[in-house]
Structures are given as structure tokens and as C-alpha cells.
Amino acid sequence: MKFWIGMGVTLAIALATVGLVNFDYFFFAGYTVLMFIVLATAWNILGGYAGYVNFGTPAFFGLGAYTGAVLYKATAAPLVAQIALAAVMAGALGFGAGLLTLRLRGIFFAIATIAVTVIMETVFINWRYAGGATGLQLLRPPPIAPFESYIKMLFVVMGLTAIVAVAIARYIERSWLGRGLRAIRDSEEAAEASGVPTLRLKVFACTVSGALMGAAGAPMPMYLSFIEPASTFSLNYAIGALAAPMIGGTTHWLGPVVGALLLVTIQQIVTVTISSEINVLVVGVLLVLFVVLAPDGILGFFKRWLRASSR
After folding, report:
1. Cα–Cα distance between 240 and 286 in angstroms, integer?
2. Distance (Å, whole) CA 156 – CA 296
3. 232: exposed, middle or buried (C-beta count within 10 Å: 0-12, 13-18, 19+)?
4. Which residues share a beta bridge with 137?
5. Whole-number Cα distances in Å, 46 to 134, 226, 241
6. Is the pTM of this model over 0.90?
7. Which burial class, exposed, middle or buried, applies to 60 when counting CB atoms under 10 A from its CB (0-12, 13-18, 19+)?
8. Rounded Cα gap, residues 57 and 79, in angstroms
9. pLDDT tens series, the chain, 311 aa
10. Whole-number Å distance between alpha carbons of 209 and 211
11. Long-range interactions of 142-149: CB distance < 8 A, separation 24+
12. What's phi and psi for 106, nearest 5 deg?
């Protein structure tokens, strides 16, 4: 109950912000923060709960973005339909890729997920209807009432997507699915010996993770009014989605949210005040600091601090 009250309060604050703030860059930056909350939460379902490090985030994100763009170009479908179809397509990719790659472990699985990204990028580079290598220009439709600008509407839509993603991750963590995934992370051989359906759980996690990443990518063409393969399938999405849970903590649903809020907010501040080229350096510095000083992330650090202070 407390969780849903908190989500309701968060949504109310977002809606109030839309009505009170007229600084458009706030919503551009806020959209990016919320998008990475979804990506980090989705990544953590497979990478954090099950321990399978996935570098294929751009494949699912990019597929979702291109699904939304192509659907809008073909039928002028509303944004909700774009997000729904993007989630289905990326979930299907997650299911198929999971069946093919999740029998691999460690570095071999990580390399396989990078290969999935390369394959998806190559497909869209050679698809002329989707713009090919030069990309596709899109004209935003008018915003839907009561929103006065499209970017404010996108901000609220991504906020709702983030709430759904966090709710799904929290449910998985607290259910038998989460217990099974944690058993896989601790020792897959022991989990199999105990009767845990390891492959089914991993494929399920990969499917849900992919669907959420695709949903996060669907609004991106409307956010930028443009889409092209090189930036859409950029490995920067993989780095951000991986770094945020590691900074916040991978063992709890709140970790990716905290990590994404901290990491992407700092990146947005650096972009405005210094240069966008330093964003990767920011990620690298924060990762090194947290790996050395707080290997369990911010949540793990505070848990240890509370236990130490209670003695």
C-alpha cells in the first residue's frame, strides 16, 4: 500500500510540475532521466536479479524506437499504440534472443548481446522504408489536451512508463520469480539441482526486460523528431542502463531508480554547464568510485551504515 501511495504522489507531483513549470529544457532533461529509470529498471530484472550482464540494451531500445517511428509513418497511430507495439516487438526479440543466448554464461553471454545490437542496427541501416542509414524525419502531431506542448506530454507519458516498470520489477523481486532469479545469480547449478526452472526464468526475465526497454524507446522519435541507426543503437544506452543499477544497487527494485536519478541528473547538469562529451567520463568516474567505495551501491552502503550505527 505504501508503495502505491508513493507512486501516486510521484505522479501527482509530475502533473503539478507540468502545470507550474514553463521552462522547456526542464522537461527535455526530465524525460531523459525518466527514460533511464525505465532502462535501468529493465536491465536490472535480468542483470541484477539473475546476474546475467546484458550489453544488448540498444537492440531492444532501438527496436522499440523504430517500431514507434515506422508505425507512426505508416498509420499515424497514437503514441499509446506505438508504445504498446514497441513493447510487444522488443519482448518478442527478448524471448528469441533469450532462447538463443541464455545457455551461455559470463563473458560469452555479454558478447552475444552485443552481437544482437549489431544485427539490429544492420537491419535498420538497410531498411529504406525506415530511412536507412540517413535516418527518418518525423513531424510531431499536435499535443493532446490538457498539455500545451508535446514535450510536456512526453514527460508525463515517460513518467507513467517508469511507474509501470518499477511496479513490475518490484512484483518480480518479491514473488517466487524473484527468488528463483536470485537463486540463479547465487549458483545456477544449485538452483537447477533444487528444481528451479532456470532456463524458463531467464527467458522470462529477458522477455520482460526487453519489452520494458522497447517501451522506453518508442517515444524517442517523437522526442527528437528524428531517428537514425547510429545514435539509436548507441552503446551509450547499454552503459547508462548498466551503470545506474550498479551505482544505486542491483539487489533491490529501488536501486536502479536511485542510480538513474543520480547519474543522469549529473550528466544533464554537466551537459548544460560544461559539455555533453564529458558524459561518458562522468559514468566512468562514478562507476570506479562506487566499485571501490560502495560495491553494493548506494542502498547497500546505507544498509551497512544502519547496521553499524545500531550496534
Report:
1. 11
2. 31
3. buried
4. 226
5. 33, 30, 12
6. yes
7. buried
8. 21
9. 656 666 666 666 666 676 666 767 888 889 999 999 999 999 999 999 999 999 999 999 999 999 999 999 999 999 999 999 999 999 999 999 999 999 888 889 999 999 999 999 999 999 999 999 998 998 888 888 777 788 888 999 999 999 999 999 999 999 999 999 999 999 999 999 988 999 999 999 999 999 999 999 999 999 999 999 999 999 989 989 999 999 998 888 999 999 999 888 888 888 777 766 677 777 778 778 877 777 788 888 887 877 777 66
10. 6
11. 147/18, 149/24, 149/27
12. 60, -135
Joined grid coordinates for residue 157 = 507519458
All three cell numbers of 34, joined, read 525518466
The span from the CA of 259 to the CA of 296, in Å, is 12
Residue carrying C-alpha cell 535480468: 46
Comparing CA positions, the residue from 56, 100, 54, 108 lying closest to residue 203 is 100
CA distance 54 to 62: 15
Instruction: Give the DSSP per-residue string, the chain.
Output: -HHHHHHHHHHHHHHHHHHH---HHHHHHHHHHHHHHHHHHHHHHHHTTS------HHHHHHHHHHHHHHHHHHH---HHHHHHHHHHHHHHHHHHHHHHHTTS-THHHHHHHHHHHHHHHHHHHT-GGGTGGG-EE-PPPPPPTT-SSHHHHHHHHHHHHHHHHHHHHHHHHHSHHHHHHHHHHH-HHHHHHTT--HHHHHHHHHHHHHHHHHHHHTTHHHHHTEE-HHHHT-THHHHHHHHHHHHH-SSSTHHHHHHHHHHHHHHHHHHHHT-GGGHHHHHHHHHHHHHHH-TTHHHHHHHHHHHHHH-
Alpha-carbon gap, residue 274 to 290, rounded angstroms: 23
